[in-house]
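Sharing a chain and its predicted structure for anyone who wants a worked example. Both blocks are below, sequence first, tokens second.
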Amino acid sequence: MRTYVAKGEEAEALKVGASWFVVDATNQVLGRLATKVARMLIGKDKPSFTPYLDSGDHVVVINADKIRMTGNKVEQKIYYSHSGYPGGLKEVPAKRIRETKPEWIVREAVLGMLPKNKLRARRAKKLRVYRDAASLTRHAGQKPQAVTL
């Protein structure tokens, strides 16, 4: 069976406006949540999905501080960053980042699951991650729909 991919003007006509969704990260496993959010940002679940168009939706993740990490990842996982200079490697354990900025952990996990292509930056702009549910009021005008994962 062949897969149909719309081309040109037909693909633009299929492109429907992006919706807004709210995902509650309370007691969700980090990796499993990230894969589902990445699929929503890409638009893979839509029937009008076209690989070379950005047809994904806006996703707001709330309660990032209540995310769950399985196994001993909280103690053992280390995030690395390098300044580009000799000796510029910085190592920060996940436990410390989780205490200071848990929304960064969720954002990095989701962005790591997006395809590395020219649409990545545009899709990344459609992701908003907040530490608690109180910050959701700033997106009340978009009327986001709650999604259970």
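Comments welcome. The chain is about 30% helix and 15% strand.
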